């Protein structure tokens, strides 16, 4: 068909105007073309082909009634392997995905909702993918993960000699090849870390930071609360959970001498002026070394009531955390409540509200959990646990059958944290009946 | 975020295989489709080599001067690979891919429209960055921005029809296949888009000369 066949009244004018956008065409260099090609290959070449639906008889159930028995064959489709897409700047080298240091983060979006970001200057790769998760290797730099929890979820992040086994959680992990230093900050859920001196696996829970040194085999477990809470005051500025801030820990892990604990790793007691009421090591130091039972025994030797009523804020934080990690829930709750009643308005007290909410949540006490989440969100609307508090509040509301409130919170959550760990859940709530 | 933007200062030979755009002229589209469907190792790359320039060009032309289209180009190809099994006639790959590209462009336009609602400036106009292309004449650059403001008023459908027919130069039959409508309907839609653009352009002092100028 000739082009003239389509002539209409305004053809000439339209043709003239159309010359303008052609000026946009420009050209694509060979390197740019190849970069796009590599990026596509990373996304497509490693994407797994969806298994064709197969009918598989999994079970036969015999239903016996008075009149007759009926065999019912249940068919079930095998779950397809997860797929993922890569977005953002990427250069590939020997199967690794490299993120240029000056061009933002690289994102891996998995089909079941899990999101993994590689920070600027980082290097990583997806080693394998299954229907239940994937095995991701962090070569160097910072990796941020928001793993969606599902039944049989099986994710692992490898960093040097360390492996982090994940169920459903949100965490940041930094690995420095030069310093052989792992730094793991857990925002939600829990993980098991294995590696040098951690052969039996160390459980790291929400609110904890693990710093491990492969060279010496040393590992320090500390609380995320105090350092992050300190940054929470008083301006309530956006927190380090924002993606743009991912360069901070990356810079930290890449810095020479990064094996030495940074100021951000100091324990709660370090920032509190009240002098310790006991000889060294302090409870904060004992907590950092993983000696949870030692903190509790020390408190018991002094008298728990005395410690709770007269101890410094640093000691209260250390005692509450130690009790929590040692699964002494009653003592942990007393410590957290003491933080709030004795030091109201402090960053530690505000963080304690979130922890109390989590503890109530874990115990199935939805009403109490909702109370504490609301307390935290009203006191720290931009706090570093605001996303988790709001997400957990959403889950608690759904569990309590309060659909109206849940939908409202789901909308709020997606507005504030569209890429948060509970975003997929919030969308499900909103799309539900 | 452009994938190419992070390459500055890196020796390409270390990180990637440089392939000249255009692909293998000896391989036709149908063979390429079958190769991709069979997941032959380098088939997807060859498809990229052959058609990415066209996809990028259409996206740039539809979306306008202020947009980095690399993510959209990637999205179009990933959708193509996903939907390739539904392509009945492998020789129609080009139309099929243009249709997908159009879909991606419309999605992007909808997303940008939503963004405008959220980020309205005082005068109700979203401040757009300068065109990325190296356009020498200021007047031409200003006219280009004005044209895309007009296209913004058209809606995604008319905008796409205008660009594909007049800027991209698609034949009516091809456009009809891409749009999935009859030739007669396609002609009506083209005429409607041209009329709308020209009427709006006539009221713009920078664009009016283009409309009145003889071809």
Q: How would you describe the overall organization of this protein?
A:
The complex is a heterodimer of chains A (433) and B (215). Chain A is of the alpha+beta class. Chain A has helices at 11-22, 30-45, 225-232, 247-254, 283-288, 292-302, 304-310, 313-325, 329-342, 347-362, 366-379, 386-399, 403-416, 423-431; strands spanning 56-64, 69-76, 84-87, 91-93, 96-98, 106-110, 115-118, 123-129, 134-147, 155-159, 162-166, 169-176, 181-188, 190-194, 202-205, 208-213, 219-223. In chain A, helix 11 (366-379) runs antiparallel to helix 12 (386-399) and helix 12 runs parallel beside helix 14 (423-431). The two termini of chain A are 51 Å apart. In chain A, 46% of the residues are buried. Chain B contains 10 helices and no strands.
In short:
By secondary structure, chain A is α+β, with helices and mostly antiparallel strands. Chain A is built from 14 helices and 17 strands. Chain A has a 15-stranded mixed sheet that branches. A two-stranded antiparallel ribbon of chain A has the order 1-2.
Count of DSSP helices of chain B? Answer: 10
The greatest interface between two protein chains, and residues involved on each side, is: A-B, 55 and 74 residues
Low-confidence stretches of chain A: 1-6, 46-77, 227-279
Give the averaged pLDDT of chain B, no decimals.
Answer: 75
Helix coverage percent of chain B: 55-70%
Structural class of chain B: mainly alpha
Structural class of chain A: alpha+beta
Order of SSEs of chain B: HHHHHHHHHH
How much is the radius of gyration of chain B in Å?
A: 19 Å
For this structure, the quaternary state is: heterodimer
- The general outline of chain A is globular
Label the overall shape of chain B.
Answer: globular
Span from first to last CA of chain A? 51 Å
Mean pLDDT of chain A: 72
Q: Into which percentage range does the β-strand content of chain B fall?
A: under 5%
**How much helix, percentage-wise, in residues of chain A?**
25-40%
Q: N-to-C terminal Cα separation of chain B, in Å?
A: 38 Å
Secondary structure: number of strands of chain B: 0
Main beta sheet of chain A, described? 15 strands, mixed
Percent of sequence in beta strands of chain A: 15-25%
Number of helices of chain A: 14
């Amino acid at each position: 068909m000739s082009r003239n066949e389509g002539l209409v009244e305004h053809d000439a004018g339209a043709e003239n105007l159309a010359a303008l956008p052609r000026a946009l065409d420009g050209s694509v260099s060979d390197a740019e073309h190849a970069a796009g090609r590599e990026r596509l290959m990373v996304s497509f070449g490693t994407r797994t082909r969806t298994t064709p639906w197969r009918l598989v008889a999994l079970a036969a159930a015999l239903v016996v009634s008075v009149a007759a028995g009926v065999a019912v064959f249940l068919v079930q489709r095998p779950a397809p392997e997860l797929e993922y897409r890569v977005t953002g700047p990427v250069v590939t080298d020997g199967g690794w995905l490299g993120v240029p240091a000056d061009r933002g983060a690289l994102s891996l979006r998995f089909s079941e909702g899990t999101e993994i970001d590689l920070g600027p200057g980082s290097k990583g790769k997806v080693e394998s993918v299954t229907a239940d998760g994937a095995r991701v290797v962090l070569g160097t730099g910072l990796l941020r993960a928001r793993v969606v929890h599902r039944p049989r979820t099986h994710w692992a992040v490898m960093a040097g000699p360390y492996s982090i086994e994940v169920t459903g959680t949100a965490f940041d992990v930094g690995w420095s090849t030069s310093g052989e230093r792992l730094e793991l900050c857990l925002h939600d859920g829990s993980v098991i870390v294995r590696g040098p001196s951690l052969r039996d696996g160390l459980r790291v829970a929400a609110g904890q930071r693990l710093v491990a040194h492969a060279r010496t085999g040393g590992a320090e477990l500390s609380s995320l609360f105090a350092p992050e809470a300190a940054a929470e005051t008083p301006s309530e500025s956006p927190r380090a959970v924002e993606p743009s801030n991912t360069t901070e820990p990356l810079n930290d892990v890449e810095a020479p001498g990064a094996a030495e604990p940074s100021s951000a790793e100091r324990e709660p007691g370090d920032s509190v002026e009240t002098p310790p009421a006991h000889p060294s090591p302090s409870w904060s130091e004992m907590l950092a070394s993983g000696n949870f039972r030692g903190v509790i025994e020390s408190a018991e030797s002094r008298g728990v009531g005395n410690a709770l009523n007269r101890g410094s804020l640093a000691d209260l934080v250390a005692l509450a955390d130690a009790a929590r990690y040692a699964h002494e829930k009653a003592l942990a709750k007393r410590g957290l409540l003491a933080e709030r009643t004795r030091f109201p308005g402090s960053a530690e007290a505000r963080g304690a509200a979130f922890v109390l909410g989590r503890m109530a949540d874990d115990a199935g006490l939805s009403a109490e959990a909702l109370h504490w989440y609301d307390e935290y969100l009203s006191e720290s609307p931009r706090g570093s646990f605001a996303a988790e508090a709001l997400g957990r509040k959403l889950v608690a509301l759904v569990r309590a059958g309060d659909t109206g409130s849940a939908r409202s919170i789901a909308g709020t959550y997606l507005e504030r944290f569209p890429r948060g760990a509970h975003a997929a859940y919030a969308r499900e709530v909103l799309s539900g009946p | 975020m452009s994938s190419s933007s992070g390459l500055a200062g890196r020796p390409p030979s270390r990180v990637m295989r440089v392939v000249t755009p255009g692909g293998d002229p000896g391989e036709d589209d149908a063979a390429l489709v079958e190769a991709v469907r069979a997941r032959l190792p380098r088939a997807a790359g060859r498809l990229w080599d052959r058609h990415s320039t066209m996809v990028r060009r259409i996206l740039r032309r539809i979306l306008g001067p202020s947009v980095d289209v690399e993510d959209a180009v990637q999205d179009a190809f990933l959708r193509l690979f996903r939907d390739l099994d539904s392509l009945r006639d492998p020789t129609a790959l080009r139309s099929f891919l243009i249709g997908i590209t159009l879909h991606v462009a419309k999605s992007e336009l909808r997303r940008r429209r939503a963004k405008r609602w959220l980020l309205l400036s005082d005068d109700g106009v979203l401040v757009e960055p300068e065109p990325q292309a190296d356009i020498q004449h200021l007047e031409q650059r200003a006219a280009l921005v004005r044209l895309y403001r007009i296209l913004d008023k058209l809606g995604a459908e008319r905008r796409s029809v205008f660009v594909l027919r007049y800027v991209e130069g698609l034949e009516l039959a091809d456009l009809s296949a891409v749009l999935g409508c009859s030739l007669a309907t396609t002609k009506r839609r083209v005429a409607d888009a041209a009329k709308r653009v020209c009427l709006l352009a006539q009221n713009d002092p920078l664009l009016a000369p283009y409309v009145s100028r003889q071809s």
